[in-house]
């Protein structure tokens, strides 16, 4: 069972159109909301005139920002609806609720807002300049969580400091030093399902939310906390989610839907993002400006790293603070460096606000680190993979936050590098001229990632038995496409030694009846929920054995469970069928014992700590998945156009639980990484308005633009994980931008330290070198 | 979602369409002719188009013609781009059309809609400009036939109430050597950085452009420079670039300077190949 | 006021006739989902860019967000709900050609039409057709494999018939 490419449980629903997503549940009688959003990136709101809008037939309410509490997970800096000023293009300024979507749109078009434009902040470096406009004047007064350090009267929402070893010593031991600046603007997740939330407040006070979310349990807690509602009265339903990639972790539309329902006496209100709103109004993929300085000995051993990460958190910090923290935690990439100085800042700008994106800061930091590693190799005139191999992180080393690594909590990076080297025929050639115009080149990168989740994040599982002995598996993991719920069924089938077809997976999450899974993020579903399922299975097995021991008149210790039976370990011919005890056992005379078997399990991450404010020391996550990646490209020296020929990943996944699903996760992530790196970015005008908020102008990779993908796994078990499996939902993405940039830099013979890597960028860089080449 | 209402009319003859337009206009209704509809729906939802009535011309037989008539190929304005591509009676048009939007969209987008649209690339017009095609326009005074060069100046100059019925292209043009190249910001899908269509006739190369300026065009001066064979090709191209209409597009697809860089190489490739044939 | 602008239209969807009351300005996608309850076609952009809402109109793939319902009167509409046990659905399942599943109905409708119209489609044709849809989860390689499996079976059965 473990390792088999089991077809996902909801597969047939998904190919027949039967699979339902949040927006598929809208029923007659539901009111519809339309967001009125800001045309400015930074402006005072002088007046909101809703009179004309109110006259549109069918309009039931128009909400504006007065009197609402500030929100935010780490730092409460965001009004759910802009109040007094707007801080990004696309920010919600009013919400119109009407009987139909058409009426809501008509009315929304009639809401007249008078703005007074303010100077804008267009990048983290601009935000940090002396005299830069302040985006949050009241930063000092905001309520904040533990470990969040805003710097009042600046645009710094949070700073994470890493101070490890002795920098003076590190530089003194360094013979060769390189420094690089890298940058890229924010971009988008562009999940095919735009975000949607439906809220209803029932007469008895129960608040029913349906949301396309990775965080249904967080929605419940936050609505309770922001608005003083009883937490048990907030019930969140999350059906299948049509792509998330981190973009559906923040809680945004749900708050608006709740407020809208409240404004219309509790009636059911749906808020469904248009694609344009989904791209700029809802949270986005973070941007970064970074300076990385690395020092090493003449033989290539890294001695010092000085790193400045300026994350473009946009107008509100929300989860961007956490992303910037994750960037600090693994700031060096997967390399052993004794002396590390890193400041990782979450900076306010007048851009759409950022949230997690697949890789959670790691694709971002890896682009900075791996570009610098290539520059260092160049300066050393050392083989790029050899430099990485020499410095590869291993058990016995410590991470930037000073966690000691061992054989379980980190994978085997040297083995990944070695295998990658073979797979890409690295030693044959790394740059080769095919003809006068065409050159091929290979770029490499190494990755690592831990999951910086809350230190008390937990996951629960419930197993209820059916009269035929089959099991209903109920977990709080949201099925966002990763197939985790099918993997959980595999874990359970393996444990119970039963046919997976007899495991019925509840796909929808309902926070009232589903045990909590903290958030479906951070490639942690299999680990945490898997542990919970194993515990629940143990619980069920114990109960089955208890009843069987009575029925079979034998000590519990002599019993085994499997193949639909509870049987004697030494004589399997003596057994009772699970179906005969799953709902209690009935004696021939009608007496009964036991009852429905209900197995319970949960898992809470252990030994995680907050990071020390001054040094960053602390344990941020349970384990580090590592890997090595490569991209091979064919480059046209005349036009600066290129094709991606092949992309390769070798990832230490601990244990492959479902082969095709695992490969699918990795190549899907690689595809997303290549799409981001090669073409995705927001394009801003000088007023910091997003010029491409549509899929026509914000263009993800399409069919046929995809290269050949090669994926291999290394298996170094994480001892405390189900069957040793490590998280791997995000890792395929992490090294792709850097590997592509490295390949193109080699091919074009010019350092390419920006994204996206469109031919015009390469042309511009080449032109900068050779003036007036056209 | 179209955030306003309109009435929908489906005439079955040219006469009826023209009549309908008159009637609706007399009723004070803002009225538009409607073919594939993709652009009207797209721009409506962004409040960039408003109409109170649409007249769908897809039911008019003349608008769906695809036939040879004497020495002319006659193409109805309401033919979908994929219908034209698949019939492949006009290979240059097939090629230029096949680069518009994507395949599924082109099942809906029509020849007339692409040419008469607001979105300024209008790449299907390039082959028509190169072949000196004629257009048949319906209006309240009946049908008229005009050279496309006359009525298409940056965009179709139709009077209110008129609509494009057919395109007529002399058959002799259909088999001439041609090239059509669309260069995008990155790879296969998206608006053009530049689209260049070219046709070789009597040892002269004709060239039409989209994506270079905020309108498609064919320029006599540009063609003269490109065909001035006394000069080396690179000089001819440089000369031609100097005589492009202005402004050169400078937008999210690419800067003006970069577009010229791309255009230069595209012209070089096209002319080298065509002159070699 | 709203009522007067609506009209009755007779649509043939998946072989069944439906009389619906809708605005002439309503798209086919809206009518399928909201009035007929056929939510298989997905709204992804309402702008003709993503292909998630692709259905077949007279067997031709059409983005249902870009066509008015009233334009499809007297035409044959097929949605994902109308496909039962087709080879392309089977192939998508077996090749893990979807993850979140949101783009899947649109992809399948397009791919189904492709394999019917071009039973021996070349790589170029496959690419031209499938470029109309965006999938954000898979790498497209899985989708390519699924489609090629169906085409290979087409080719095998054609050979069987001929020899």
UniProtKB/TrEMBL annotation, chain A:
Any Pfam family the entry gives: Ald_Xan_dh_C
GO molecular function: iron ion binding; oxidoreductase activity
UniProt domain Aldehyde oxidase/xanthine dehydrogenase a/b hammerhead: residue ranges: 16-119
Domain of life of the native organism: Bacteria
Signal peptide: none
UniProt keyword list: Molybdenum, Oxidoreductase
Coiled-coil segments: none
Identification of the protein by name: CO/xanthine dehydrogenase Mo-binding subunit
Species annotation: [Anoxybacillus] calidus
From TrEMBL, chain B:
Domain of life the protein comes from: Bacteria
All copies of domain FAD-binding PCMH-type, residue ranges: 1-174
InterPro entries: CO_DH_flav_C (IPR005107), CO_DH_flav_C_dom_sf (IPR036683), Diverse_Substr_Oxidored (IPR051312), FAD-bd_PCMH (IPR016166), FAD-bd_PCMH-like_sf (IPR036318), FAD-bd_PCMH_sub1 (IPR016167), FAD-bd_PCMH_sub2 (IPR016169), Mopterin_DH_FAD-bd (IPR002346)
A Pfam family: FAD_binding_5
SMART domains: CO_deh_flav_C
The UniProt record lists the keyword Oxidoreductase: yes
PROSITE patterns hit by this protein: FAD_PCMH
One of the record's GO molecular function terms: FAD binding
Gene3D superfamilies documented for this protein: 3.30.465.10, CO dehydrogenase flavoprotein, C-terminal domain (3.30.390.50), Uridine Diphospho-n-acetylenolpyruvylglucosamine Reductase, domain 2 (3.30.43.10)
Keyword Flavoprotein among UniProt keywords: yes
Keywords assigned: FAD, Flavoprotein, Oxidoreductase
PANTHER family linked: XANTHINE DEHYDROGENASE SUBUNIT C-RELATED
Protein name: CO/xanthine dehydrogenase FAD-binding subunit
Protein source organism: [Anoxybacillus] calidus
TrEMBL record, chain C:
Domain 2Fe-2S ferredoxin-type: 7-83
GO molecular function: 2 iron, 2 sulfur cluster binding; anaerobic carbon-monoxide dehydrogenase activity; metal ion binding
Annotated Pfam families: Fer2 (PF00111), Fer2_2 (PF01799)
KW Iron-sulfur (keyword) present: yes
Keyword field contains Magnesium: no
EC number(s) from the headed UniProt entry: 1.2.7.4
Entry-linked Gene3D superfamilies: 3.10.20.30, [2Fe-2S]-binding domain
UniProt entry keywords in alphabetical sequence: 2Fe-2S, Iron, Iron-sulfur, Metal-binding, Oxidoreductase
Domain of life where this protein originates: Bacteria
Enzymatic class: oxidoreductase
InterPro entries (alphabetical): 2Fe-2S-bd, 2Fe-2S-bd_dom_sf, 2Fe-2S_ferredoxin-like_sf, 2Fe-2S_ferredoxin-type, 2Fe2S_fd_BS, Beta-grasp_dom_sf, Diverse_Oxidoreductases
Name used for this protein in its record: Carbon-monoxide dehydrogenase small subunit
Origin species: [Anoxybacillus] calidus
């Amino acid at each position: 069972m473990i390792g088999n490419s089991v077809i996902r449980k909801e597969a047939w629903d998904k190919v027949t159109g039967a699979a339902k997503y949040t927006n598929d549940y809208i029923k007659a009688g539901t009111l519809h909301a339309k967001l009125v959003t800001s045309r400015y990136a930074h402006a005072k709101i002088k007046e909101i005139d809703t009179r004309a809008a109110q006259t549109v037939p069918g309009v039931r309410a128009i909400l504006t920002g007065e009197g609402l509490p500030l929100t935010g997970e780490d730092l409460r800096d965001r009004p759910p609806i802009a109040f007094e000023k707007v801080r990004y293009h696309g920010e919600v300024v009013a919400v119109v609720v009407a009987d139909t979507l058409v009426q809501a749109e008509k009315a929304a078009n009639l809401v007249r807002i008078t703005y007074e434009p303010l100077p804008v902040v267009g990048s983290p470096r601009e935000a940090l300049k002396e005299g830069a406009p302040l985006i949050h004047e009241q930063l000092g007064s905001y309520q904040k969580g533990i470990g969040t350090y805003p710097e009042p009267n600046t645009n710094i929402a949070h700073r994470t400091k890493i101070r490890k070893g002795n920098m003076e010593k590190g530089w003194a031991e360094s013979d060769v030093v390189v420094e690089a600046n890298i940058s890229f603007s924010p971009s988008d997740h562009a999940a095919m399902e735009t975000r949607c939330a439906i809220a209803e407040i029932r007469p008895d006070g129960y608040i029913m939310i349906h949301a396309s979310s990775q965080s249904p349990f967080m929605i419940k807690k936050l609505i309770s906390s922001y608005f003083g509602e009883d937490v048990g009265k907030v019930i969140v339903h999350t059906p299948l989610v049509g792509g998330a990639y981190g973009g559906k972790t923040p809680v945004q539309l749900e708050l608006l839907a709740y407020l809208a329902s409240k404004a219309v006496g509790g009636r059911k209100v749906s808020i469904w993002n248009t694609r344009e709103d989904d791209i700029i109004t809802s949270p986005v993929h973070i941007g970064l400006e970074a300076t990385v300085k690395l020092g090493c000995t003449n033989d290539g051993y890294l001695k010092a790293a000085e790193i400045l990460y300026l994350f473009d958190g946009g107008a509100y910090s929300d989860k961007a603070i956490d992303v910037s923290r994750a960037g600090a935690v693994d700031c060096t990439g997967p390399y052993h460096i004794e002396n590390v100085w890193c400041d990782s800042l979450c900076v306010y700008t007048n851009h759409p606000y950022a949230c997690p994106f697949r890789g959670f800061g790691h694709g971002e930091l890896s682009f900075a680190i791996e570009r610098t590693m290539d520059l260092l190799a160049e300066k050393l005139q050392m083989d790029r993979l050899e430099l990485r191999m020499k410095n590869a992180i291993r058990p016995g080393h410590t991470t930037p936050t000073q966690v000691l690594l061992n054989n379980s909590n980190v994978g085997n990076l040297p083995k990944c590098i070695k295998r990658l080297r073979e797979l890409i025929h690295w030693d044959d050639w790394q740059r080769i001229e095919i003809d006068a115009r065409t050159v091929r080149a290979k770029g490499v990168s190494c990755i690592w990632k831990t999951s910086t989740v809350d230190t008390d994040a937990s996951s629960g599982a419930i197993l209820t038995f059916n009269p035929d002995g089959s099991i209903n598996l109920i977990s709080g993991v949201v099925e966002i496409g990763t197939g985790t719920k099918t993997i959980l069924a595999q874990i359970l089938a393996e444990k119970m030694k039963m046919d997976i077809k007899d495991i019925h997976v509840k796909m929808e999450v309902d926070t009232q009846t589903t045990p909590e899974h903290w958030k479906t993020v951070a490639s942690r579903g299999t680990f945490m929920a898997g542990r919970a399922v194993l515990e629940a299975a143990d619980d069920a097995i114990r109960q089955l054995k208890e009843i069987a021991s009575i029925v079979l008149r034998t000590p519990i210790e002599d019993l085994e469970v499997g193949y639909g039976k509870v049987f004697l370990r030494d004589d399997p011919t003596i057994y009772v069928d699970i179906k005969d005890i799953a709902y209690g056992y009935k004696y021939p005379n009608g007496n009964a014992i036991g009852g429905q078997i209900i197995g319970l399990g949960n898992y809470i991450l252990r030994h995680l700590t907050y990071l020390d404010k001054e040094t960053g020391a602390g344990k941020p996550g349970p384990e580090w998945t590592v890997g090595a990646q490569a991209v091979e490209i064919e480059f046209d020296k005349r036009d600066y156009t290129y094709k991606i020929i092949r992309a390769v990943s070798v990832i230490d996944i601990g244990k492959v639980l479902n082969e095709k699903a695992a490969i699918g996760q990795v190549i899907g992530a690689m595809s997303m990484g290549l799409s981001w790196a090669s073409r995705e970015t927001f394009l801003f005008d000088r007023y910091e308005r997003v010029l491409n908020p549509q899929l026509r102008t914000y263009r993800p990779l399409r069919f046929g633009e995809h290269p050949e993908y090669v994926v291999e796994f290394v298996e170094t078990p994480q001892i405390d994980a189900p069957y040793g499996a490590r998280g791997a939902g995000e890792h395929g993405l992490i090294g792709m931008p850097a590997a592509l940039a490295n390949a193109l830099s080699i091919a074009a013979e010019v350092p390419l330290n920006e994204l996206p890597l469109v031919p015009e960028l390469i042309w511009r860089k080449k032109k900068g070198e050779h003036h007036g080449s056209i | 979602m179209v955030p306003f209402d309109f009435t929908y009319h489906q005439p079955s003859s040219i006469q009826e369409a023209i009549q309908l337009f008159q009637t609706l206009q007399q009723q004070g209704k803002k009225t538009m002719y409607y073919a594939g509809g993709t652009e009207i729906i797209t721009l409506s939802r962004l409040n960039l188009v408003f109409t109170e009535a649409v007249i769908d011309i897809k039911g008019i037989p003349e608008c769906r013609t695809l036939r040879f008539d004497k020495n002319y190929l006659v193409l109805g304005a309401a033919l979908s781009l994929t219908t034209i591509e698949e019939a492949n009676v006009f290979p240059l048009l097939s090629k230029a059309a096949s680069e518009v939007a994507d395949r599924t969209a082109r099942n809906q987008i029509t020849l007339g809609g692409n040419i008469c649209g607001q979105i300024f690339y209008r790449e299907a017009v390039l082959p028509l400009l190169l072949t000196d095609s004629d257009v048949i326009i319906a209006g309240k005074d009946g049908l008229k036939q005009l050279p496309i060069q006359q009525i298409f100046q940056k965009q179709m100059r139709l009077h209110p109430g008129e609509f494009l019925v057919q395109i007529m292209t002399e058959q002799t043009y259909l088999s001439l050597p041609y090239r059509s190249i669309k260069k995008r910001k990155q790879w296969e899908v998206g608006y053009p950085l530049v689209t260049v269509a070219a046709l070789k006739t009597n040892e002269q190369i004709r060239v039409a452009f989209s994506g270079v300026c905020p309108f498609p065009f064919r320029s006599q001066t540009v063609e003269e420079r490109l065909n001035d064979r006394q000069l080396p090709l690179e000089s001819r191209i440089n000369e031609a670039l100097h005589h492009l209409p202005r402004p050169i597009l400078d937008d999210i697809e690419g800067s003006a300077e970069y577009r010229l860089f791309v255009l230069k190489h595209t012209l070089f490739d096209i002319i080298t190949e065509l002159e070699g044939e | 006021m709203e009522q007067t602008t609506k009209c009755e239209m007779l649509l043939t969807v998946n072989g069944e006739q439906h009389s619906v009351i809708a605005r002439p300005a309503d798209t086919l996608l809206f009518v399928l989902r909201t009035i007929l309850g056929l939510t298989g076609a997905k709204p992804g952009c309402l702008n003709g860019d993503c292909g998630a809402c692709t259905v077949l109109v007279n067997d031709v793939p059409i983005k249902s967000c870009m066509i008015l319902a009233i334009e499809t009167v007297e035409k044959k509409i097929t949605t994902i709900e109308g496909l039962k046990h087709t080879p392309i659905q089977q192939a998508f399942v077996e090749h893990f050609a979807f993850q979140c599943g949101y783009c899947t109905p649109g992809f399948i409708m397009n791919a189904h039409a492709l394999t019917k119209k071009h039973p021996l489609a070349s790589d170029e044709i496959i690419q031209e057709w499938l470029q109309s849809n965006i999938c954000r989860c898979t790498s497209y390689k899985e989708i390519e494999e699924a489609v090629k499996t169906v085409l290979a079976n087409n080719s095998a059965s054609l050979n069987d018939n001929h020899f």
